[in-house]
């Protein structure tokens, strides 16, 4: 059985922290609460990965400032902002800054749970991408330096002949290295080799 999904609830209103965390736990989530954005930022470096439910109107640092600090620190957890009724301009700013959703107060339980479910789906998709990229990098690390050079040529769209000219080796040698690359990657086609290479970040930019 998988562990319940974790929500980091950041809201300066103690009554809302209490009622929202009770409601979310009842809906099957785990909840960790923070009295304001500063308290959350103090702990986020060591925080377990989850979804951030972030109130916009808070003292010291408002939600948008907290969101900006999270972006600067490279915190990749999905953020849902809680806005006042009709505060569309703030919601738009939050979404532009990377929030995955916003929910207006007062909110219905179903609305909040649906938004959180979408956010967790995004988090899990990102986790899968990270696993795939880690696996792809692991496969590429098994290549010899020369095999890696041949792979880079393939990623750049070069033919065997042009790779041979670039590396000053024979086309036959390129074919041998290419076959070794495919074998070590467990790839049956060039398209699979390229998918693995792109997942590992080769050829990006």
Characteristic key phrases:
Arc Repressor Mutant, subunit A, elongated, 2 domains, 57% helix, five-stranded parallel beta sheet, 205 residues, Rossmann fold, alpha/beta
Outline the secondary-structure elements.
Blueprint: E1 6-10, H1 14-26, E2 30-34, H2 37-43, E3 51-55, H3 63-72, E4 79-83, H4 88-96, E5 101-104, H5 109-141, H6 145-155, H7 160-167, H8 171-185, H9 190-199
Parallel strand pairs: 1-2, 1-3, 3-4, 4-5
Structural overview:
With 205 residues, the protein is α/β, with parallel strands linked by helices. The protein folds into two domains: 6-131, Rossmann fold (3-Layer(aba) Sandwich); 142-199, Orthogonal Bundle (Arc Repressor Mutant, subunit A), CATH 1.10.10.10. 57% of the residues lie in helices and 12% in strands. It contains nine helices and five strands, in the order βαβαβαβαβααααα. It has helices at 14-26, 37-43, 63-72, 88-96, 109-141, 145-155, 160-167, 171-185, 190-199, and strands spanning 6-10, 30-34, 51-55, 79-83, 101-104. The chain has a five-stranded parallel sheet with strand order 2-1-3-4-5, with helices on both faces. α1 (14-26) links the parallel β1 and β2. α5 (109-141) crosses α9, α6 packs across α8 (171-185) and α7 packs across α8 (171-185). It is elongated, with a radius of gyration of 24 Å. The mean pLDDT is 88.
